[in-house]
Design brief:
Layout: E1 2-5, H1 11-21, E2 25-28, E3 32-36, E4 49-52, H2 55-62, H3 67-71, E5 75-77, H4 80-89, E6 94-96, H5 101-111, E7 119-124, E8 138-148, H6 154-161, E9 167-170, H7 173-182, H8 187-191, E10 194-197, H9 200-208, E11 214-216, H10 222-227
Parallel strand pairs: 1-2, 1-9, 4-5, 4-7, 5-6, 7-8, 9-10, 10-11
Antiparallel strand pairs: 3-8
Length: 233
């Protein structure tokens, strides 16, 4: 199958490698550009731990002026990808909730019940909601933003227009929004392939835009999304 991966760099390369290993052709079309916010105000310490719902939060933390302070904190990550990114960024004490935001909040509540120090949630500017943990204060700090692409690269535009794309992989609602905005002058072609979505929230705008073939991962992680991509799809 010939596939488009809309995931931002650098995670798109890992996704492409996994797909190519299964014999698929991959066209990388990152529709978001992740920008760390260097002057993000963390507020005064102490913090009980750091919460991560994205690998981008870990990478932004590694470039923050208070990096040394952050790296000493235990990390609770939403899933394995964000946990791996945290370890790669320099965090030593990392635990994965292996689930979604609710699983992360549940784990944080169990581990830090009664903590007087708040949990530090390193968040993106655009997110589906706030992260609340029962019995523990959470300080949300926006430490990165995702800038949308303004148009498709020529190669992707031509491939879609020629009907040469079998499927498109979408990892977030914001990247889907960017895909639809880039497709405004070629909507029929852009909606024609199979669309593989990480979540129902990401899939919703595609259905509203006219996509007839949309599959949603059983769990909001890369492995579940890739499991959808089969020639029979």
């Amino acid at each position: 199958m010939r596939l488009i991966v809309t995931r931002p760099e650098p995670d798109n390369e890992r996704t492409a490698k996994a797909l190519r290993a299964k014999g698929h052709e991959v066209l990388l079309v990152p529709l978001l550009r992740i920008e760390p916010i260097a002057d993000a105000d963390l507020g005064p310490p102490p913090f009980a731990a750091t919460l991560l719902t994205s690998a981008n939060g870990a990478r932004a933390a590694a470039r923050h002026p208070r990096r040394g302070e952050l790296m000493k904190l235990p990390v609770l990550a939403v899933g394995r990808s964000s946990a791996e990114a945290a370890r790669a960024a320099g965090f030593a004490d990392v635990v994965s909730a292996d689930g979604d935001a609710r699983d992360l909040a549940r784990l944080a509540g169990e581990r830090f019940a009664g903590s007087q120090a708040p949990l530090l949630y390193l968040a993106g500017e655009d997110r589906s909601g706030e992260l609340a943990v029962a019995g523990v204060a959470v300080r949300t700090v926006v430490i990165y933003r995702a800038a949308k692409a303004e148009h498709f690269p020529v190669q992707a535009r031509d491939a879609l227009a020629q009907g040469a794309i079998d499927g498109v992989l979408h990892f977030s609602r914001r990247s889907v929004d960017s895909y639809i905005e880039c497709a405004r002058e070629m909507m029929d072609w852009a909606m024609a392939p199979m669309h593989y979505c990480l979540s129902a929230r990401a899939a919703q705008p595609l259905k509203l835009a006219g996509a007839a073939r949309v599959l949603i991962a059983a769990h909001p992680d890369e492995a579940s999304l890739l499991a959808l991509v089969t020639p029979k799809s």
